[in-house]
Write a structure and sequence with these properties.
mainly alpha
Amino acid sequence: MSSKGSFDAVTSWLSKARGRRGAGAPPLAGVLVANKIDLRGDDGAPALMNQSGFLAVGLDLSEGRAVVTQTMGMALAKKEGLEYFETSAMAQRGNLDPFHFIADQFHRRYAQTAEALSGL
């Protein structure tokens, strides 16, 4: 939530990771995790707005302000076929959810593969 640069780079990172997979490989189960949600305002918007209500440009991230909204994160996750999670290490909120999702997806795929192979 506090790094617009990282948020903007997600598409590029995904493209590189997906490009390394072989042709015909099944899609990767993936997650987009928004951390530091405690830096957001109560309405889900970044906590630092200028007087006109627009996101201030050139934020000093050392002040600890969110710059990515929940709506932005959810839209990117949907566009890229990822599950979206929000976490706060400081508030100890939602930190295990992405890991549980990935473990569940792995287990489901393993079970499907094992079932398919048992019929051979």
